[in-house]
Amino acid sequence: MAATRFLSNARGPAAHDSMSAPADIDSIRAAFTADLEAVTSEQDLQTVRDRYLGRKQGAVVALMKSMAGAAPEDRPALGKAANLLKQEIDAALTAQRETLASTARPAGAVDVTLPGRPLLFGQRHPLTSIRESVETIFEAMGFEILQGPQVEDDYHNFEALNMPPDHPARDMQDTFYLEREMPGGTGVEGSPPATLLRTHTSGMQIRYMEIHEPPVRIIAPGLVYRRDTPDLTHSPMFQQVEGLLVGEGVTMADLKGTLVSFLQRFFDADTQVMFRPSFFPYTEPSAEVFISCVFCKGDGCAVCKETGWLEILGCGMVHPALFEKVGYDPERYTGWAFGIGIDRVALLKYQVEDIRLFYDNDLRLLEQFPH
User: Fold this and answer.
1) Average pLDDT taken over every residue of the chain
2) First-to-final CA distance of the chain
3) pTM, two decimal places
4) Are 345 and 134 in contact (CB under 8 A)?
5) CA count, 13 A, side-chain hemisphere, 120
6) Which residues are registered as beta bridge partners of 144?
7) In angstroms, rounded to a whole number, what is the distance separating the alpha carbons of residues 287 and 312?
C-alpha cells in the first residue's frame, strides 16, 4: 500500500541544514508525485494530505519553517516557491479525490470481479412427486389425465354419483358448503343449486362422460376438501386421484389386474394386494384394497395393528345408475372406478407418521425426500 512508503521520499526538517531550499522543494514535489500515483482509496489520499499539508508535521510546513535560516534577500523568492508548491499539492489532491469519487462503485452495484455464488435450486414437494408418479404409471397404461373445478355443484359432487339428499356424506360435518340449496331444491327466488368445495374428484367422471362416448379411460387428480379435524392421518384439505374405465365387456378382473399392476409398480414387485368387499354408493360391487404393510412387510406391527395389511384405496364396478345419468346404456357398457388418497400413499411411501408435516412448509423436513 502507498501508506507504507509515504515517509521514504520526503525529507524532514533535520535535512534542511545540509540541503538548499530549492532542492528541498524539488525533493518534496518528486516524493509527493510518487506517493499520489500510488493512491487507490480515500484513506490513502488523506494519509498523503496529512504527510505533506499537515499543520504540525506536514512536509510543506516544515519547509517554510526552515526558511528562517535563509539569507534575507532569498526569503521572498523561497516563500513564493513554497506557496506555489503548497497550491500544486492541494490542487493535485483535490483532482485525485474527484477521480476516486467518479470511479467508485455505486452503493448496491454488482462487483463483477467477485466469485459467483452457488445457485439454490428448488425441488418437488413430496406430495407433488407422489402425484406425478401415479400419473406417470397410469399414463403408461393409456389413461388420460383430467383437471376439474375445485368449487363444484351439488349435482356433480353428490346426486349424479348416486347419493340422495339424505346420504350421510351430505352432512355439514363432512362438506364445506359455499351456498346451500333450500328445501325443495329451488333455492331462494330462483337461486342456483348448492355449491361446495368438492369432497372428491369423482365429479370429473360425470363431467367427462356427459360429453364423451365410450370407451373412457381417465384419472382425475386434485385437491379435495372435507370438514375433518386435523390429526395424524386427517386433514381438511388433501389430494386425491380418481380413476374410471368404461367400455364393452369390462369386468372386475380388469379392475383387479390394473390395480395390482399399479400398486406393485408404485411400491415394489413383492407387494401383496388383497381385495375385501365393501360398499360405496357409486359402485356395485365395491371393494376396499389392502397392501402388505410397508413397515413390517406383513409380519405385523403397531401401524398395521398386527394384521400385516394396510388399507390403500377403494374401488368397484360403476353403478348402472351413474350410466343412466350420463346417457350410457348400462346393458351395453360396464366400467370400474377407484379412488386413492395421495397424502395417504405418501405417508406409506415415505413412512411418515403425521400427515400435517407435509403442510407445515418446514424445509428441513421437505428437503429430505427424493425428487
Assistant:
1) 84
2) 52
3) 0.65
4) yes
5) 2
6) 218
7) 11
Provide, rounded to the nearest whole percent, the portion of the chain with pLDDT above 90.
Answer: 41
Residue 192 pLDDT greater than 70, yes or no: no
- CATH number for the 126-366 domain, one of 3.30.310.50, 1.10.3370.10, 3.30.930.10, 3.30.499.10? 3.30.930.10
Tell me the DSSP string of 22-65. Answer: HHHHHHHHHHHHHHHHT--SHHHHHHHHHHHH-TTT-HHHHHHH
**Burial label, 282 (beta-carbon count in 10 A; 0-12, 13-18, 19+):** buried
User: Would you say 242 and 207 are in contact if contact means Cβ atoms under 8 Å apart?
Assistant: no
SS3 334: strand
Regarding beta strands 237-247 and 309-318, do their DSSP bridges make them parallel or antiparallel, or are they unpaired? unpaired
Asked whether 47 and 3 are in contact (CB, 8 A), the reply is: yes
Structure-block grid coordinates of residue 96: 485525485
Q: How is the beta sheet containing 151-153 ordered, strand by strand? A: 151-153, 195-197, 177-179
- Identify each DSSP E strand in the chain by its residue range: 144-145, 151-153, 177-179, 195-197, 216-225, 237-247, 273-280, 283-292, 309-318, 334-341
pLDDT tens readout for residues 86-142: 888 889 888 888 888 777 666 666 777 888 888 877 788 899 999 999 999 999 999
Spell out the domain ranges in the chain: 2-103, 126-366
